[in-house]
Amino acid sequence: MTKQIGERAGKAIQDNHPELISFGGISGLTAMDIFSFDSFATFSALTVAVFSSIFLSYRRNNKITERVNHISTLEAVIRDGHRNFYDVWDDKAREIYQELTMDVKSRLTIYKFDNEIKKFRLLGRYSDNAEFRERRRDVYPPDQGVIGKAWSSGECYVKALPNPVTNWDKYADENLKFFGIPRDVLEKIRMKSTCFYAFTLRDDRSIPFAIILIESVKRDSIDRQKIDQKFENGHAREISAMIKSLAFMEPSLRAAQDLGL
Of 44, 68, 92, which residue constitutes the final position of a domain? Predict the structure, then answer.
């Protein structure tokens, strides 16, 4: 047992402060007269050098610890900012959802095209149905799904897809044919919508910057005219202003992915 403790202590000293081993070895050899110093001054200088090395090693280890703690603090700040940023957008989605008097079978989502990663990122989402409200992923490809169609064409309206419960094969076939969604991906989507309306929002230079997707599991249930009227009366400008004003809070997806967020 004593031997094991000694071995562990020795290894710890060797890993963290190898200078101590050097100093101990020199002192031991000197005491055994294996070699001698020409003068006490030489030995004293060597002793000072060794202890200086120990001190510098101690400071270096402390700086490493401080850096690790600093990185941990930054990660926590980014996580909090990540949550707060999306909370603001979820609140905006809920506000529009309620203005449109949407029901529990429907959902509203706000997407922004991220030029950094060339994909859509989900900004805000709301549904009275808690399951539909969940975020399963934060990024979406620009060439797939209803939002991909809307991005390339300006809008995409689907009045009634086949019922996924009673006619799954046809539902899956049409999703693949019209929206490029493979069956295995479709199976993982919780909300099997049958009615969609997606449209782009454009800035003052008529450049698209975001997409609104309104969807429902109830066929032929979306009033396009009512929705268009609401957005013509200011929601597009509000969302554009929010994107600009909240840019300082917006987490980088690359940084978030590196941190495992």
Answer: 68
